[in-house]
């Protein structure tokens, strides 16, 4: 997931210089207004993109942290449960000559 974040960040960084500054053709007031509008929209996009990138990175970090806690919890619970399974399986294995989970 982190690779996707860096790819998006690289693409946005490459687009910054071309999207923030829009040059006008001549001194036409309408073109200047449109160029200013595009420039403002580009800046808004860059801010939203930076926010989304930060959110994504925090989300990935939270998922990785949760996965670590889940794995630790699962590992801690394996030992007690295995002892219970062995206690249940022992008499049955003696009769059937194989474990229940075969």
Automatic annotation (TrEMBL):
Native organism is Mycobacterium uberis
Tell me which SUPFAM superfamilies the record gives.
PE/PPE dimer-like
PE domain mapped to chain residues: 5-77
| InterPro entries found in the cross-reference section | PE-PGRS_N (IPR000084), PPE_sf (IPR038332)
Please identify the protein, giving its name as recorded.
PE domain-containing protein
Cite the Pfam families for this sequence: PE (PF00934)
Question: Domain of life here?
Answer: Bacteria
Would you indicate the residue range of the signal peptide? none
């Amino acid at each position: 997931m982190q690779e996707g974040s860096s790819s998006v960040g690289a693409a946005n960084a490459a687009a910054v210089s071309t999207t923030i500054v829009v040059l006008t053709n001549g001194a036409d007031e309408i073109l200047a207004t449109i160029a200013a509008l595009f420039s403002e929209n580009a800046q808004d996009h860059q801010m939203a993109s930076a926010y989304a990138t930060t959110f994504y990175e925090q989300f990935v970090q939270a998922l990785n942290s949760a996965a670590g806690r889940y794995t630790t919890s699962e590992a801690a619970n394996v030992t007690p449960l295995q002892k219970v399974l062995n206690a249940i399986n022992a008499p049955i294995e003696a009769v059937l000559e194989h474990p229940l989970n075969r």
